[in-house]
Design brief:
With 219 residues, this protein is α/β, with parallel strands linked by helices. 47% of the residues lie in helices and 12% in strands. The protein has a 5-stranded mixed beta sheet with strand order 2-1-3-5-4, with helices on both faces. The protein starts with 14 loop residues before the first strand and ends in a 9-residue tail after the last helix.
Length: 219
């Protein structure tokens, strides 16, 4: 069982890499990132700007859904196997949706049909190829390269980078960033190495405190 005790001043002395090559940042993302940079320095972190190492190849493959489609059927069927009242397989979910399209098919079920068309056991050659490619781009040539430089956490503006962390299998957490004058809040995404969940959560909690905490609107 991993030790998830949170260190109160987790960012003090931590090395944080801020990904700078995300294209097309909007005003909210830019303002939030600037505020977070100051907050990290106030918390005692060492901050450096970096490009994501495999960025040049992510434009072609970074958003591919092949792995999701091939894994979805087997995982969902395993989850639904314990259901006593309701659909117990992906096929039964599709059929239930088709029986009540006005209520259940607001966004369609294209992905469900695509996933249902796979074997669902992870044995297809196309799945193995896509999984190997994803791990190479996001883990071996991506986050592992950054963490090998001594970084404790990697930070993305907004929620950018969440799919890269998910493909790599590395933990991530979004931290809201309050803005002055009642403006819509922004946020950043923190990513940690595999097994560093405690550091990730402690760092997010520390950053949240330095930023002044989350302030929800009344009503």
């Amino acid at each position: 069982m991993p030790d998830l005790t949170l260190i109160e001043a987790a960012l003090n002395g931590a090395d944080i890499g801020i990904i700078r090559d995300e294209a097309g940042l909007d005003e909210r993302e830019t303002a939030s990132l600037a505020r977070v940079r100051l907050a990290l320095q106030e918390a005692g972190a060492q901050v450096q700007d970096l490009d994501f190492p495999s960025r040049a190849d992510l434009g072609t493959h970074g958003w591919g859904l092949e792995v999701l489609l091939y894994e979805f059927k087997g995982d969902l069927n395993a989850y639904l196997a314990g259901v006593e009242h309701g659909p117990r397989t992906m096929q039964e979910v599709i059929e239930a949706n088709d029986r009540d399209p006005d209520r259940l098919l607001r966004y369609g079920q294209t992905l469900l049909h695509a996933a249902q068309g796979t074997r669902g056991d992870g044995g297809e050659a196309a799945y193995r190829l896509a999984r190997t490619r994803d791990l190479n781009l996001t883990r071996a040539r991506g986050f592992d390269t950054l963490f090998a430089r001594g970084l404790d956490l990697v930070l993305f503006p907004g929620l950018r980078g969440y799919h890269l962390a998910a493909k790599a299998g590395y933990p991530s957490v979004a931290v809201p960033v309050p803005r002055d004058g009642g403006a819509q809040p922004g946020g950043v995404l923190l990513v940690a190495p595999a097994g560093a969940d405690a550091l990730l959560l402690a760092g997010a909690a520390h950053l949240n405190r330095v930023l002044g905490g989350v302030r929800f609107p009344k009503g």
